[in-house]
Amino acid sequence: MYEQIRANRFKSSLLISVMAVLIVLLGFVIGEAITRDGGMIGITIALAIWFIMVAFSYFGGSGMMLAMSSAKPIEHKDHPQLVNVVEEMAIASGLPVPKIYLIEDSAPNAF
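Predicted structure:
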């Protein structure tokens, strides 16, 4: 399991880094196209945009996904058997109990 976590973190870091490089290159090209010495201005603006995107994704990504899928939080009184199963699995694996959400959809999912 820890190998998978490490691989996922590496892939996420790689994706964020590649995105940063692409946005900086795009900022440089646009800055140079607008003015002759605008490359550094374009890079600065691109880095600011990249930073805002990363911060928004890091702090608000799960909320965005839950809102887009119209997920509703589940409480113990709503579905006690489901909550008990999730709590037992979390305790058995030594992990914290995750928040549980219900997505009303006809398609099966594991989100």
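Summary: The chain has a mean pLDDT of 89.
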